[in-house]
Design goal:
By secondary structure, the protein is mostly helical. Helix content is 69%, strand content 0%. The protein is built from 3 helices and no strands. It has helices at 6-11, 22-48, 53-64. The chain starts with 5 loop residues before the first helix and ends with a helix.
Length: 65
């Protein structure tokens, strides 16, 4: 009468996720737009910076392996 074995725990079915409906999709879409805009504001400048030559060299060396 202790803890269930790992095999027993793995055999139990996972609870299913509730079905998504059209109402839930609208807030999700709005959140996605908000998140995308926020991430662009934060990271676009960094993404535009040139890649350092040392990093490019390391990437090329790894490709050749």
């Amino acid at each position: 009468m202790g803890q269930p074995d790992d095999d027993e725990a793995a055999a139990k079915p996972m609870p299913s996720k509730p079905a998504r409906n059209a109402k839930a999709a609208v807030p999700d879409a709005a959140f996605d737009v908000w998140l995308r805009r926020g991430l662009h504001q934060i990271f676009d400048d960094v993404a535009r910076e040139p890649i350092p030559p040392e990093l490019l060299r390391l990437i090329e060396q790894d490709r050749k392996k």
